[in-house]
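Case study 2.
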Amino acid sequence: MKLLTKNAEDRYQSGYGLKADLETCLEQLKKNGKVESFALGIHDISHTFTIPQKLYGREREIETLMSAFDRVRQGASEALLVSGHPGIGKTALILEVHKPIVAQRGYFIVGKYDQLQRDVPYSAIIQAFQGLVRRILTESEERVRRWKERLSKALGVNGRIITDVIPEVELIIGKQPDVPPAGPTESQNRFNRVIQNFVGVFADRDHPLVLFLDDLQWVDPASLNLIKTLITDPETRHLLIIGAYRDNEVHATHPFMLMIGDLTTGGVSITSITLAPLLIEHVNTLIVDTLKCASRLSEPLAQLVYQKTNGNPFFVNQILKALYEEKMLVYEPAHGWKWNIEEIRSLRVTDNVVDLLVGKIGKLPPETQQILKLASCIGNRFDLETLASVYEKSLDQVFVDLSDAVREGFIIPSGMNYLFLHDRIQEAAYSLITDEDKKEMHYKIGTLVLRQTEREDILEKVFYIADQLNAGAGLITNNTERNELAELDLMAGRKAKASTAYAAAVKYLSKGIELLGEESWRQEYELTRDLHMECSECAYLTGDFEEAERLFEKVLKHAKTNREKAEVYKIRVTLSQNRGQSREAVKYGLEGLRLLGVKVPLSPSKLAVLLEILKAKIYIGRRKAEDLLRLPEMSDPHKKSIMALLGEMIAPAYFVNKDLFSLLLLKMVILSTRFGNAKVSSFGYVVYGLILGSGLGNYKAGIEFGKMALTLSRRFNDLYTACISNFYFGGMINHWRKPIKTDLDYLNQGYLAGLESGNLVYSGYCIAMQIGIMIFKSDRLDAVHSQSQMNLEMLRKSKHEDMYLCVMAVQKAALSAARVDDELDEIELIDNLRKKNQELVLHIYFAVKTSALFLFGKFVEALEMALELEKKKEVLLGFFHSVGHTFYFSLLLSALYPTAGARKRSSYWKLLKKNQKQMKKWTENCAENFSNKYLLISAEMSRILGKFEEAERLYDDSIKASRENEFIQEEAIANELASKFYLSRGRERIARTYMQEASACYERWGALAKVKHLKEQYPHLFDTSLGEQVARETINTEPAPSHVSSALDLTTVLKSSQAISGEISLDRLLRALMAIVIENAGAQKGFLMLLKNDQLFIEAESTVDREGATVLQSLPVESSTNVSQGIVNYVRRTREQVVLSDAAKEGIFTADPYVAQTHAKSILCIPIIKQSALIGILYLENDLVANAFTPERLEMLNLLSSQAAISLENAKLYDELEQRVQARTTDLSKAN
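Prediction:
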């Protein structure tokens, strides 16, 4: 078997060793008649000097690497860094885990940063994924087709972003269309998202992805940003990023170390391995394995080698090779390897590995030395064709001249290429070249590669070509060549900018400017202008504002036309807005408009806005919105420049001056109607629709212009403008004519369009508005909480501070109705909003908070807030929050009217009439959204006037309208106010019915604190028996509310029991049971498990946000990742129910893997038992709130589980009977 061993090092190394073992076998056969077991290879010593290619003393580090991979397999994403001096074995250590990772279906990809190509963006990341793509291209057609589907779905319309960076991807997904240009922030956002989606395609549960990036001490800034993005993205899973770097070559202020500092400060956990030198015993073991000698014999040699190398593995290998080459290690057939320790001790061997390598290279033939020098200039990896072109010899001759370098182990073949065995060897070869010769070699390489590259392929290789030529630029004396290189630098700079590698872009662009000189403004105007414009923008984006301003001023000084100067100001608008400097951005924009002949004041008057509206109406004339869609595309370059600048100014203008914002948009409408539509015309049209509707009261025309803006965005196929148009339409226009729930479709489309285009500003507005809409359309409060938590995380990731504050404020205000005994400290939040001058966010908060205060009877405090908002309600123009404000303002006025003085009553009544006039107009435009509110305020006003019969009818009409249009919150309020109305008139029996219905509505809404408040305030209305409740049901025209009191809980149990006891189909029973449980238990999700053949299977699952339960095909519990295996096992074995109020923080299951990973809150696990036998388990979770499973709910679920046990057994018996009947029928059919 030793002859067949897989590892060559474990086979026989010499014929002498094999002969010796065979002779031993023969001798034993002759002597004993059989061969006894004996140690093989005792005399097997190879005469070839070979150092074993295995690791010594790194067992603990390998275990750390594999542990990280195991966590990633489970769904984590991690970063692991390996540091140490050059030659310490970082790369060898990491590559050691390649095979075991691949054996476990992991993808292991490798990229290496090059010391001579430090400015090339993403070089190692590109190299790594190129390898993965090439691997995919070797798979079957069917597999490649599936990869194409997955990649196309993940990349969407932005596939070109990936193929520009990794051209090989085009071989899978095909040629991709250009992506629309975007501003720097949008480009960065879009690039990050596309890369994250791209990586996510390969990093999944079936194939965890390990990305190994070597030599991070030479990493470029763009790669650092991308690495940081991947590591901090909470959606990235099954990804392990391993980085290796030389810790002696990175100081505290090195960009890589600064990134690591930022990550750790931000709470990101990074595993670090610092490789120490080998211990002397490891060095000795290596020598023993190399020389096949006894350990005690090699110890003096090991001691000497250790002293010279300090245990550095690469240096140890080089020293041993040097000793062999100097014939200090000699093989004797009879005795094996021999050496003279004193001779070795007297040999002068350098303590510097580079010097040692330089000396060894110097002993190679001159031709080999020369070709190694050229190869070191090409890079760590090189191909023979390029090398032959630069060397100016045939491929055969190149192969011959390289052979000594290959034989000595300086370079090794790698596919169709060659690479230096170690960076130290490349460094040594490169150090042998004089500075002048380096320039000449680099220039020669760059020129040859450029000459051999087709024009259409230059962009793909532009970084490499530009780097080589820039290194030899000092040799260029010809102006034509200088201009050509400057154009290459412009091309490289733009490519780097397109991939958001702004620091690299600045280096290329600055080099291009340097090559041209000052006279180029006259001789090469366009090239010089473009280099300066691009460089100024990229310098600004790297934070070098002083250099950016210097370059901007140079362009303004030399610009030939006002349009070119205006372009500079447009860029300044964008960059200032990106830094949050809205006022500065507006000033730049106004100056740009002035240069284009458009004069606009910083603070226009209301009259100026009205005149602009009038002008817009005149230019539109009798044309309808749909007529404007048929306008031709704008073609006048001057007008297009004005439109583009106006488009950039919209966002900052909104925060500086609302009248300026309106004026600029109206100018866009006028320009579009006169000169044709441009991409940004949809901005103007959609806000014009807002002005027509909420501003002038023509909601029908407003929605027509809004829809036309959406169509125009689609026609231009422009996601950036689609995001903005959907935000204004879905958040400020649609609900005035259509049901409010349809707003969410437009806001979601806007959010997705913003993600695709990188427009995270308006994408953030969309998801912030989404929460307000959910609140005012009466979505369940736990759903609001869940969605707002998700949105907060998205806003945090995109650094959208103002909308983060907005969602935080709205969440705090809205959820106060859901929290029991949880006082939310909002004073600090309000102070923070005032200090930051967040007027819009503050008034959105007031609109929501007013409703919460009203619910808990804090009328005076709420009225003060409503009055403050009333003064600035134009801030909420178009927002549905303005409806909420008007509605609750009227409710507060009605509530306080009876106790107010005469003067206040008069004032309150005027305000009520004014509010109702507005509410009536809204109702006429969209009864679904507003009629219930109008009717309720009308009821309150009738109550005040003493028109009691009319008030009774109006309360009921409001309740009915609220229910029909799914405004559960307002249905609850209407019931509560009706109850109070009847109480005031001494009709307690009717008041009790309305109050309990109100409580039921509040509970369905999720307002548990409000339910508690009602029961404390009106205990006599809830203290009733079941018989009295049933009697009252005959009085009330609507069904009585359920699950409010113990009597009502019993009603629920009875109804639910009837529903499941009558069901004999197992499939339908499972669905019915899960629906009942989820509806009544307060759970977010639930699973029903049944015992079959002593094994638990999940038979059904349901979640609160999905209609109906899913019946599964008997999924084994142990294969599910959605439940705690530990809790299920405990309940199965003990038959005791488990109730956890906050599972991750208390109880015996805090260390349970599932609980620890998911940070689970409320968990309930109930055994289903029939006649003392366990037949199943019900598992419920609420991961949003603690203490979700109250004693009342537990009691109800225990009762239900008893009925469920009977019904499940009956259904199973019926199911088995059906199967037997079917089988018998089949048998009879066959018999006949």
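The first strand starts at residue 77 and ends at 84.
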